[in-house]
Design goal:
five-stranded antiparallel sheet, 0% helix, elongated, single chain, mainly beta
Amino acid sequence: MPTTPYKVRRVTKRVDDIVLDTHVHVDNELPLGAINGTNDLFLTAESFRAGSTKVFLNGLRQKIGISHDYIEIAPNKIQFAAAPRTGNNLTIDYIKS
C-alpha cells in the first residue's frame, strides 16, 4: 500500500441508459519503491490497464515508451529509463484493470 492516501474515482460511460464501460481511476498514488537515484522499478497498489498510466516526476508528466521516460513492464510495475533522484516526488495516475 502507498504511504499516503490516493484518490479513487469510478467512471461509467452510458448511452441511452446502456452501460458502455465502467472503470476505476486511481489518482496521485505514491508508487512503492525507493527514490534513491539507483532504483528504477516502482509498483502500484493495484493492477492497471495497459497504456493507462500517467506518471509525474516533481509535478511534470513523464512520457511513456521505450525511447522516453518510463515503460510499463507488468500490470502493476513501471520502469524508468533513469532512476529518480533522492528527494524527487513521484506520483502515478492509472485506470485499474
